[in-house]
Task: structure prediction
Amino acid sequence: MGVAGCVYLAFGLGIPAVLAALLRTNRSRIARSSAATTESSSARCSSTSVTTQTQSSSGAPSSDDQWNREFVTTFGFLFRGFERTGASFYWEVVVVMPRKVALLTVHTLLNHAPVIVQTLSALFILFVIIVVHTRYQPYMNPSLDRIESLSLVSSFSTLYFGLFLLINDTQLGALPWLSMTVTVLIIAMQAAMILVFVYALLRIVVPQQLAKAASRVEAMRPSSPTRLRRADSPAAAPRRRW
Result:
């Protein structure tokens, strides 16, 4: 049990700590990569009005910029979508991962404890996470903050109402309908959360992916030959008066 506990702590707490240190060390690189991505996106938008001479003057990206992009591509899942200021930047490794570790710890270490003890422990963890999330609102998109809040409240409510299902029929006494009512309520909450996630997928995620795909297609499309021809054609030159 001692060795297993050490390994559990090493992986459960060590990995988030290493990733947090990695993000802290490379925070400036991530900021530069984000700035370079923004500049390249704005350059693509104005590329149709830029002449061939201006396009050829842009140099190839440096090795440092290439390394920054590779780092963002590899570890971007840790910080994409979160605010880049304060604790929100480390939200995935400081809050999300430890939350999963804490809930797994409750299930593992309190395996032989009564179910009500496990449930109350999980409720306390979720309550702390709800308070922290409400305080910081870590996502860039406010809609994602609201969806995450609804998800946490739904998990908290499911465990809370599930406590009523732990009471047997003898303890319920004159309330035999309570189990059915609580079951229907839990199913209704989960169905509502599924609808919320589907709505968010269609309203937020799909438009973002379509916009990214459109920008990639626009970047791959060659410059308009008509505009380049207009810039180099003799008609564009001023006429001489004889």
User: Anything to note?
Assistant: The chain has ten helices and no strands. The CA atoms of residues 143 and 204 lie 8 Å apart. The two ends are 100 Å apart (CA to CA).
